[in-house]
């Protein structure tokens, strides 16, 4: 097996599956691991190879992509018992696409460097469907030599990627980007609910809004889902809630007030409380509809 054409993958969820599809379509061998056997079998159906352990991946590939939920999961996969480092293999670079905590990313990069392994934090801005179409934007932090060693992968996985500097830079950029992205999505949902209560036809309104200065990419990515009520997940409410928790923790350390982000987090918590956490982030429109006063005359 050619090590240059073999890529390890840990995490076969919405994003991990999209990454695997693009790699497989471009002639790479993808050997992947997920805790759930169902996910491993799904990778095999795509044409990949399922690993039964993390050590098997570390022995087969010198580059491993992580697509996990948070920094806790990343540290467990890399440093924990039976983790990637325990295998003692030819692993050279770990590409972490997880939206995690920048300081923990930096600390992990330092630990790995002492073991001769590079960590690139490379979170991706975009939904799983955008990533599938190579329209997600990869934000890369880490050693430049490691970035250049993985440039072929970044060029395959996205039409756009940015090298931002030292370890943790990609994670920091993703948090700031996600703050803006989430608020754009929330503003769209609120505007649609308002237009609906004004008695406007929402499809006509959306077509018009796209041509005005009110336009944002959220209209293209989430607009149809909001109009149709199709909340099949491409990015989950629980995941963005986790991102907002991290964003607000860092803002607090920096002494910055984020009033809009605070409100957004509360709205997501209300969605989660009624069982909508695993729905697509576009389902935030449901909570905005629920917030209407019952005595409103239409």
CATH architecture name of the largest domain = 3-Layer(aba) Sandwich
| Helical residue percent band | 40-55%
Give the overall average pLDDT: 94
Shape estimate: globular
Stretches where pLDDT is under 50 for at least 5 consecutive residues are none
Discrete helix count? 14
Radius of gyration: 20 Å
CATH class of the largest domain: Alpha Beta
The percentage of residues in β strands lies in 5-15%
Order of helices and strands: EHEHEHEHEHEEHEHHEHHHHHH
* CATH homologous superfamily grouping of the largest domain: NAD(P)-binding Rossmann-like Domain
**CATH-defined fold name of the largest domain:** Rossmann fold
Biggest β-sheet description: 6 strands, parallel
Termini gap: 66 Å
Q: Given the helix and strand composition, which structural class is it? A: alpha/beta
Give a written overview of the molecule:
With 298 residues, the chain is an alpha/beta fold. The chain has 2 domains: 164 residues, 3-Layer(aba) Sandwich (Rossmann fold); 119 residues, N-(1-d-carboxylethyl)-l-norvaline Dehydrogenase, domain 2. The strands form 2 sheets. A 6-stranded parallel beta sheet has the order 3-2-1-4-5-6, sandwiched between helices. Helix 1 links the parallel strand 1 and strand 2. Helix 9 crosses helix 11, helix 9 packs across helix 12 and helix 13 crosses helix 14. The longest helix has 29 residues. It is globular and about 65 Å long.
């Amino acid at each position: 097996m050619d090590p240059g054409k073999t890529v390890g993958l840990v995490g076969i969820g919405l994003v991990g599956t999209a990454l695997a599809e693009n790699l497989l379509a471009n002639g790479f061998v993808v050997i992947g691991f997920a805790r759930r056997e169902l996910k491993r079998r799904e990778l095999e159906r795509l044409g990949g190879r399922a690993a039964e352990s993390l050590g098997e991946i570390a022995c087969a590939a010198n580059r491993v992509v992580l697509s996990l939920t948070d920094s806790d999961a990343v540290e467990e996969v890399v440093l924990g018992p039976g983790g990637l480092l325990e295998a003692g293999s030819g692993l050279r670079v770990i590409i972490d696409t997880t939206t995690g905590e920048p300081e923990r990313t930096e600390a992990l990069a330092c630990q790995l460097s002492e073991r001769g392994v590079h960590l690139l934090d490379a979170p991706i801005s975009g939904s799983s469907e955008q990533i599938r179409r190579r329209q997600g934007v990869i934000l890369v932090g880490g050693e430049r030599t490691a970035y250049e060693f993985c440039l072929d992968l970044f060029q395959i996985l996205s039409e756009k990627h940015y090298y931002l500097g030292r370890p943790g830079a990609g994670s920091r950029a993703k948090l700031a980007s996600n703050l803006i992205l989430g608020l754009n999505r929330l503003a769209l949902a609120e505007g649609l609910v308002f237009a609906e209560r004004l008695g406007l036809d929402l499809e006509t309104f959306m077509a018009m809004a796209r041509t005005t200065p009110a336009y944002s990419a959220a209209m293209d990515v989430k607009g149809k889902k909001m109009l149709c009520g199709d909340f099949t997940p491409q990015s989950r409410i629980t995941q963005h809630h986790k991102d907002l928790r991290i964003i607000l923790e860092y803002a607090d350390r920096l002494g910055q007030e984020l009033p809009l982000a605070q409100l957004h987090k509360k709205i997501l918590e209300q969605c989660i409380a009624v069982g909508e956490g695993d729905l697509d982030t576009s389902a935030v429109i449901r909570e905005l509809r629920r917030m209407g006063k019952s005595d409103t005359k239409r």
